[in-house]
Design brief:
This protein is α/β, with parallel strands linked by helices and about 325 residues long. It is about 35% helix and about 10% strand. A hairpin with a 3-residue loop joins strand 1 and strand 2. Helix 2 packs across helix 3. The longest helix has 15 residues. It binds NADP nicotinamide-adenine-dinucleotide phosphate (NAP).
Length: about 325
């Protein structure tokens, strides 16, 4: 079973209430700490100088800590979420807190996730980047089957444009490279959509570095979205390639996906620093690379507040070194 199938099969949707809004500035560098799990930071405006932003494809400046909308669906990433109004609130709050990179896919729901984003956020605030994907079909809950045929992808783009109420999709990602279709054919369809003005930039998902290099011979690739977090670094080589080539790396399952963050040593370290293990995991990602664009997902306003509050978490080089060592332990 691949990672995505594991994620989906063991999917759980938890409904949660609205958290208290405590706007605390989070900084650990000077020894100051925050109340674990109860702090939220008003996200600073994107600024290249403080390293909180990244420019995708040379022209799309985003705050590096984004939001993944996949969890705003029904069980098995299927259908509408159990509490649709709560899901809309989560999306609006994510934007309020400074997330201006929102990740979705036509396969989430399918379709409902994109529709929900338009419901909650259209007309879109200036600077909001919606990154969607195509090329993964959904025969049923928890099931994912790649389809990279050019004719299929072309109509995926048109349908996403309609659902998202956009004239152009800022970032369109090939959800999976279909082993039955030459990558060049799938990307050729996206290149055509790009030339027609339907797509601004193109990204890939779950790919080896060699595949990124090969794809770039057909079309510029501006982002890669692979599973990656503090305890799962299988795609380290792809990340290094992205870093070298200034390609945005959007780690999915940044807080462990459905499995969550369960490392006992990291749990203790987080507590010692006055944050939660989720905040520590996200802060580690932001620290790990300047091209890292985490897209943590949640259906809970309380978890959203907690996750977005990691933006300003800073540890010293020695502290990060110690945490890195702990991450390798069970
Ligand atoms: N490209 C791909 O193949 C692919 C695959 C999967 C996902 N994605 C994208 O990546 C995004 C993130 O991935 P993901 O949702 O699988 O993984 P994730 O963001 O690491 O984890 C989400 C899970 O963690 C829980 N969670 C989040 N914050 C929490 C917190 N502070 N405390 C406790 N639990 C917390 C959520 O439950 P609650 O709802 O209860 O908070 C949810 O079950 C998705 O939204 C999607 O956009 C892409």
């Amino acid at each position: 079973m691949n990672d995505e199938l594991f994620e989906i099969n063991s999917e759980r949707i938890v409904r949660a209430g609205i958290s208290r809004r405590l706007f605390l500035r989070t900084t650990l560098a000077g020894g100051a700490s925050l109340l674990a799990g109860r702090a939220a930071t008003i996200f600073a405006a994107a600024s290249a100088s403080d390293n909180t932003s990244f420019t995708i494809g040379g022209d799309l400046a985003v705050n590096r800590l984004g939001f993944g909308a996949m969890r705003l669906t029904g069980e098995g990433i299927w259908g509408w979420p159990p509490d649709r109004e709560n899901a809309r609130k989560v999306l609006r709050r994510a934007v309020d807190l400074g997330a201006n990179l929102i990740d979705t896919a036509d396969a989430y729901g399918p379709e409902t996730d994109e529709l929900l984003i338009a419901e909650a956020l259209y007309p879109y605030p200036k600077g909001l980047v919606i990154a969607t994907k195509g090329g993964n079909t959904r025969p049923g809950p928890g099931q994912w089957v790649p389809d990279g045929r050019p004719e299929y992808l072309k109509q995926c783009v048109d349908k996403s444009l309609k659902r998202l109420k956009l004239d152009r999709i800022d970032l369109y990602q090939l959800h999976r490279v279909d082993p039955k279709v030459p990558m060049e054919d799938s990307l050729g369809a996206l290149k055509e959509a790009q030339s027609a003005g339907k797509i601004r930039h193109i990204g890939l998902s779950e790919v080896f570095r060699e595949q990124v290099a090969r794809a770039r011979k057909t079309v510029p690739i501006v982002t890669v979205q692979n599973r990656y977090n503090i305890t799962d670094r299988k795609w380290e080589n792809t990340l290094r390639y992205c870093e070298k080539e200034q390609i945005g790396f959007m780690p999915w399952a940044p807080v462990g996906g459905t499995r969550g963050m369960t490392n006992t040593a990291l749990e203790k370290a987080a507590k010692d620093h006055g944050v939660t293990i989720y905040q520590l995991g996200l802060a580690w990602l932001l620290h790990r690379s300047p091209v890292m664009l985490p897209i943590p997902g949640t259906s809970s306003l309380a978890h959203l507040e907690e996750n977005m509050a990691t933006a300003k978490v800073k540890l010293s080089a020695d502290e990060w070194k110690a945490i890195d060592a702990l991450a390798g332990q069970a």
